[in-house]
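Researcher: Quick one. two chains, 454 residues in total.
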Amino acid sequence: MYGNAYIDPNETPEILQGEDPVLLAEFEARIQAGEKIEPQDWMPREYRKQLIRMIEQHAHSEIIGALPEGTWITRAPGFRRKLALMAKVQDEVGHAQLLYSAAETLGKSREAMINDLITGKSKYSNVFNYPAITWADSAIIAWLIDAGAIVNQLANSKGSYGPYCRALERICYEESFHLKYGHDNVVHLATGTPKQRQMVQEALTRWWPPIMHFFGPSDKISVHSEILMRWKVKMASNDDMRQQYLDMYVPKIWDLDLVLPDPNLKKNKETGKWEFTEPDWEEFKRVINGNGPCNAERLAVRRMAEEKGRWVRRAILGDNAKYTVPLA
Amino acid sequence: MIESLDPRITRANIEADSAIDPLTPLDQFQTFEVFHQKKRGQQHVHVGIVHAPNPEMALLYAKEQYSRRGQTSNLWVVPTSCVTATEYFDDDIFSTTEEKIYRDPGTYKVIDRIKAYKERKAQTQS
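Model:
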């Protein structure tokens, strides 16, 4: 589960400087023709750089995203829900591994990516810096955060980089279980006792601002973003994905008589667009830069896992181990 | 110490700002290419990679990663370093295949000629 890659709008690199025009034309023609780029192909530096950043952030989001939901494994209500939640959390970790593999084909090692995660150099989806306070929070995450991830991942699975598309196809297939599981949990609470309804309503109220942040701020239209769209690295604008998400899920939320904490949220019948109170982007920036309620805990847990497992990994590493970049 | 909503994390007594030494090369092992056979009788199909220190553990991880759902009858793992592949920039070596129509059964049109032969024969006999 994952939001959109965070591209710094202030960054204006000399994107195409020094690229071979013939190779660049061939590369762009291939993408235009709907063909995929494979790891061994020539690609512009900026294509490689943005894909590494995007796929790596996505991988980190999966592995950190397992933590807020993992909080509830020991206290899941009932054995079936415990099994399902363990399966979901295992899927998220599996997705991280698929994505790290896709990023590795571009030349950044998994060790380097993990180092950048645990030192705070790389970002991950901002939503996971918020806590899952009750079981109902885990239900809202499984339904509405995974739903957002699916919107994003389905778009990206039609991108141009072969290994990323292949990983996303497998991921989307598994996410459909997460969505059903989450919806089932929310419906169970929303159609239950007054106490259960209150729990799920409170969780929804807590999660709505992070959900509105999920796809990121409106894209600044720039040469940079246009090139990334042309290269099928970025597949849809943040605003378009947010609109699509609201279209799909707000009616389903209202259907359960749950209240969204935004009095201005409504679909404009004339424009066909959703209108809402502008999310607090200062809060978004504050949290993505390390000052959210759970940033420190999330990274500390990752560091502990890496550190405590290190001697085991070293002990089982064979003498003749040699790293080769994966082929696909 | 981290006070978490997750009791397991609280029990682990983790320092909040515990810097660790960076991971060094091969900390995450080498990679193995994984091939998955759905049912007996079908081909093994490449599905992705796993990181593992040896083939036995690679199989274990491959099972966890690639057989969580649906059917599986068999898995192979092969060290990535053992794979030899063609180069994408050389893919024109495959480009003449379509021209070799004599390898294509659909390009053999015997029925037409048999029909013509039979018509000719019928004419000479009448």
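The two ends of chain A are 22 Å apart (CA to CA).
Researcher: Thanks, that's what I needed.
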